[in-house]
């Protein structure tokens, strides 16, 4: 794995305070790019696009698109300088050298790229080889690969899978971590771009590797979350003090992100979702979605899993429970009957 430094990047020379006096040419080089595309302005995409816009040179244009017109209107209202709304995904791609997509599920990504790449005529005059598509969505690696293949075979640009972690809070603060799968020659350029929206960019290998890394991590996270809720519930039912138990675990071998940062017991970690009725945070449905993707991708490669299916079934039951639905995934503790 290669952690790529953003500091050494040539694109950093284009910094937000630079005021260009002449319009830069669309096609000459990515270092001179002037038009950017962003598709999918949801919970993650909206703040990411805002951070990107804030860090781009003043004269650059950000072209945005979302099927939800309220999202693009709100974005334009809040960021009136250098932002334009496109009617569809194809228009975004035709006008941009770099296109970032942040969409919910595999079929959304496949649909948007189909719209972009078909018909397969050149999207503009001779600039296709410069074009870079960065997909930050968490989707099925097989679908991502087929979209990458379609992009490359159409000659319309290069494709990078760059799923992220850090949640909505990280997207707002610009502190996301991106896990990217890209050919070595694209890594620096992708890193420079993603560094405007995040703190770390980890290159895990060729196309598809970003998603495999993300799914392996989220598989572990989903299991750790359930195990932490069960262990905390067990200890508390045995009469242990919640904070004392968490402190002990967090200097012992059970320590993990759900025990240390996102502890499921209200009052143990100040500011955690558990302390605000499990509102916000990483939703149960998202945990279930990522587990499903990881299990499918593992099965397709003949990889044996012991716990995944049980965990997925449990998350689905949690989401179907009225008092837990739509909450942070640490609400598993409530589902187990944990003392709040
Ligand atoms: P979201 O549902 O809030 O936003 C998705 C946006 O895409 C919406 O605005 C929707 O209108 C738009 N959209 C859907 N179909 C479209 C289409 N065909 N054309 C244009 N726009 C379209 O989702 P999100 O929470 O922002 O998540 C986006 C991706 O990031 C998902 O793959 C998710 O798994 C991943 N992710 C989310 C989080 C999180 O905490 N929310 C964290 C890490 C990764």
UniProtKB/TrEMBL annotation:
Catalytic activity: 3-hydroxy-2-methylpropanoate + NAD(+) = 2-methyl-3-oxopropanoate + NADH + H(+)
Domain 3-hydroxyisobutyrate dehydrogenase-like NAD-binding: 208-336
Protein name, entry field: 3-hydroxyisobutyrate dehydrogenase
Enzyme class: oxidoreductase
Entry EC number(s): 1.1.1.31
Cross-referenced PANTHER family: 3-HYDROXYISOBUTYRATE DEHYDROGENASE, MITOCHONDRIAL, 3-HYDROXYISOBUTYRATE DEHYDROGENASE-RELATED
One Gene Ontology cellular component: mitochondrion
Matches recorded under Gene3D superfamilies: N-(1-d-carboxylethyl)-l-norvaline Dehydrogenase, domain 2 (1.10.1040.10), NAD(P)-binding Rossmann-like Domain (3.40.50.720)
Gene Ontology terms: biological process: L-valine catabolic process
Keywords, sorted A to Z: Branched-chain amino acid catabolism, NAD, Oxidoreductase
Pathway this chain belongs to: Amino-acid degradation; L-valine degradation
PROSITE patterns, per the entry: 3_HYDROXYISOBUT_DH
Entries under InterPro entries matching the protein: 3-OH-isobutyrate_DH-rel_CS, 6-PGluconate_DH-like_C_sf, 6PGD_dom2, 6PGDH_NADP-bd, HIBADH-like_NADP-bd, HIBADH-related, NAD(P)-bd_dom_sf
Pfam families noted in UniProt: NAD_binding_11 (PF14833), NAD_binding_2 (PF03446)
GO MF: 3-hydroxyisobutyrate dehydrogenase activity; NAD binding; NADP binding
Active-site residue list: 214
6-phosphogluconate dehydrogenase NADP-binding domain: residues covered: 37-205
Family to which the UniProt record says this protein belongs: Belongs to the HIBADH-related family. 3-hydroxyisobutyrate dehydrogenase subfamily.
Highest taxon in the source lineage: Eukaryota
